[in-house]
Specification:
about 15% helix; 35 strands; five-stranded antiparallel β-sheet; mainly beta; about 750 residues; six-stranded antiparallel β-sheet
Amino acid sequence: MNMLAFVRSTWCLSLSSLMACAVAASSPPFVTPTLPQRGDPSSFVLPPDGPPSAAMQAVETEASLPPRAELDLQVVCVSRTPRYPRYDPLYTYYWITEPGGYGPYRFSAATGLGSGQNASTQRWPNVGQTVSYTATVRNRGTLAYSGSVEGTWTVDGVPVSVVPQTLSLAPRQTATYALQVTWDGLDHNIHFAIDAADDRPDNNDFSLTSLSVAFLSYADRSYIDAFRVQSASYPNAITDDFFDWLNAHMDRFNQLFEATNCNKRVHFDVLAELEDSASDPTDPARINFAIFPFRYRAGEGSLRLSGYYDPSEDLDYGLLHEMGHQLGLIDLYRLNVSSAQNQVSGQPYAATSDLMNGVSHFLSEHSANAMNHWLYKAHGYYGQFLYQMPDQVKMRFVGYDGAPLAGAQVRVYQKAERPGQGEVITNQVKFSGVTDDNGEWLVPNVTINPAYVPTTHAGDTLRNNPFGYVAVIGTNGLLLFQVEHQGRSDYTWLEITDVNNAYWAGQTGTATFERQLALGGSTQYFPPLDLTEGNADSWYAWAADGVLTLSNDTFAQVGNYSLKYHATGGFDNSALYPADRIASWDLGAVQNIHMRAYAVNPNFGFQEGSPWVILRSPGGYLELRSTNDAMNQAMGQWRPFVIPIAGDSQWARTVHGTFDIEQVQSIEVHIDTWGAGFTAWIDGLRFDPPVCPGDYNADGSIDVFDVLGYLNDWSSAAPRADITADGVLDVWDVLRLLNSFSSQCQ
């Protein structure tokens, strides 16, 4: 399968489907008009030689287009010739089982070259060779232009050529200016500008670098006209010219690179108008360019209706995302994991936000490093920068108190594409081992057979590594670590992007990654009677998209405080308690979970069974999910929820793994919204009957057997008897027990 087609299949398959991926709620409603076929330029009047005056006006005659009189020359693009082809890799797909038995899983590798290419195919000009830069100047106005226009070429800030040229251009016609230089293989700033007094001086110049990636796109005449009409509906439109708008995206892409100290640059080498009925051009050949899309066709919708269009900037970041694919950047969201995909712990995972994950308005360190890695490489490969990993990966695990988790049992699981299951983390253990006295463990490498994954012609080699046969689209680039210490377990993650970044930072031998887990330190045997009373610092926030902030708030119905959620993104937003200690709660007598909620949501509403609650124990977890998105009942009002541990028709109960209700380690509250951004308050979160020292044996009754059981544990120095959780068994623990006993846990 051609990799360009493969890349597109992972996102949107065409310009139309790109816009159909999502519709931005903030975009003004607009129906693309059906425009008639444009006539020939004879409907325009050519002025005599010399600069046109305002009186010399020729307007478009088509009744479907608003009339305008505008004088505007624009520099549309700059081409660099001779052109040389990008790599055209051919991919082979495998189901592989590793030598250690892990698998099978699916991956792909570039195993050859298409289009008649081979190892000796020229990719760049030879040093000393003459190279031409050709600027295309287009008359995008409605006034014909006739007169002398001076074009100036600048290299690295120094003018090197001034070319006067007499132009006689009807609207839509073009002229070219050329510069010849000697290729030295270095990256130079090339700038071209025309000296023309017209209505839009801001499109009279064009910049690129000599190693910039050349893009190609065509646009049908009616599509360009429709864009101008549509622009009137957008108060923040930066232009009503489609070619200027596309070049603004290239400028923005280059700004994203610069902001991350990446020297990669992009430009339009070919950007041209076509008659609606014209066949797709075949010259120049597509293989020389990065392309997305090849052609904006008449009748296709506006990119301003894309779900990733930002009206404040008048830019479509979804288009930049797709252009990123043409540079070989992968969909980093393939590293994300939903609860349903994680068959081990049910915990979701969100990779770092990036243009390639969530279509963020910035590039991550990893994407920037990847492009710097391929800075002087011809493009065409996809994701093989993932192969850049240290010789060895070492993990260091520490507990809540920062102390190393010595002698901990470690099990490693991996996200991968499995037969009949898709992309999941199964219960198959990939590696296992025990940490040393410093909490460190050297992760084993998988032995790679180069017959499956030959070194690419761009020089990327997949060597022995912990991830195994790396799928270049990222499907197996995430490891899940289960760490068991002193009878309790917690989980943590390692992305292949972290490993790549360590390699690029110079850790090519052994790279060490430290992870802090909810292990070690003190243990909380009895949860607070109200888990949301002024303890936001003890909660952990996680968001699948955007940022979730947790805080104490006096807007409350129970006690003095509630736990306030403020989410900027959509999808799953969850809060976990406790995040600052280990819990070991015996909830055997608990029948219900009580909480109250209030929400402000500017979106359509909540979804995916919001809210849902998860209780975790060492071997599995219990999920209680609303069957009717009950969180919508809390919009604009306080709403009490009673969630039965046994589940019912309103709260679906699902057990994952081996859940032990007598060893609960945490509680999570999850909320998922349509769109993005909401605020919610959770108040009075408690267990019923309450779990407290007074009911020491956790049987749901407070009686003399609780006192007798406690005194027996206290005398034998059992850890659970340290009710004050200060690490010391003394009279204060006894007094705390008796106080809770006498107050009946109130």
